[in-house]
Amino acid sequence: MSSIVWLRLLLIFLLAVGHVSLWIWLFNRINALGLQRATIKRLEKMVVLLCLLLPFVFLFVEWRYGLWGNSWQQVWDRIQEPQFYRRGSIATLIYFGAVLAFLAWTAPRWLAHRPAFAVAKKRYHLVHRRLEPRLHKQNPHWVMGAKTRYSLALPGNEILSLETNIKRLFIEQLDKAFEGMKVGHISDIHLMGQISPDFTRYCADWVVSNGAEVLVLSGDLVDDARAIKHLESAFAHLPSDLPKVFVLGNHDRAYGLVEPARDTMVGMGWLDAGARDWQIHSTRGAIQILGSELPWLDRHTYSTSNPIAGVATSSRPKMILGVSHSPDRFPWAKLRDCHLLLCGHTHGGQIRVPGIGPIISPSWHGSRFASGVFYEYPTVMHVSRGVSGTHPLRWRCPPEASVLELASRPSEPSTLPVGSKK
What we know:
The protein is α/β, with parallel strands linked by helices. The protein has 11 helices and 16 strands.
């Protein structure tokens, strides 16, 4: 085949990639709009349907009017014709042009934000990582629902595996008193009667046993009213003197469980960062806790920071810790000078393609912040892959429980305003 034909085949391939990319882009961002779950699900189904049907609609139009011929041989002949670019209906050509323009706009950004490039590698060091595969083999009672049982039969499914890790994060202008402080982070436990709360308890116990001085749970606690009682099974045993912080997520709102979940967590001594700001007094100094549950939940009250029981110290916070369910709140954390922001929601994409990484990620930024450590002056953001999910499917993306060890980073001269990249 001539080089011209190869170039035309490449163009057809790019059209197919651009088409799929456009609808995946829309699918990811629908989940960042804060709409009701029923509305989001309808929109998702519409996006998937259009993605699958549109190519057949265009093919039917071209076949119906004979613009590309009525057989594969005729189509191949048309591809080799000098008048190749004039073939096709006006509607098809307009859509193809739009798809190629979209691909040219998004492809460089998408490639630049792949995990190999986007994660802030200079801002953390992996101290410990251990993968515990197929934990349900030693704990068969953890499998409670048929959906989970059937999904575990799929080769490579990691829904009941667990990665435990300790990451040393290098924080901009960290007070020396907080050098070596350990923050435990888990997210997206999605209790709904499919997986035993003992799995969540196992994750929390690992974090606490590895020296966490604060434990943070960043949203999506329950997906079923009957699972509210499982929160106590997972967390009621934790030390009462350990500061524990939580926010709720989109699933807690979607299933109408906001108040029951809040009441249960607060009753066990957790600090509700979604309802108000907090200030923790510790021997290291004052820790400011800022929380956000937007775009799904807004605060009913806007109280000023109040201290909780602890060791008396200066009321001026020396460490500002942000907690949100979605990494889309990164700009919010930067504007509030958060040293560290902890998030979840994206589940790491749940399926990671070798060499590419996650594709589907419910965020306004797509898969850019699917999981890992990110930095934009002055905030380090840690996005957890979470513990569970509504869909019990994970490939190359196991659940995660993390201990984040804080380390100082020498100040760098800067005149950048708060919220600017450095």
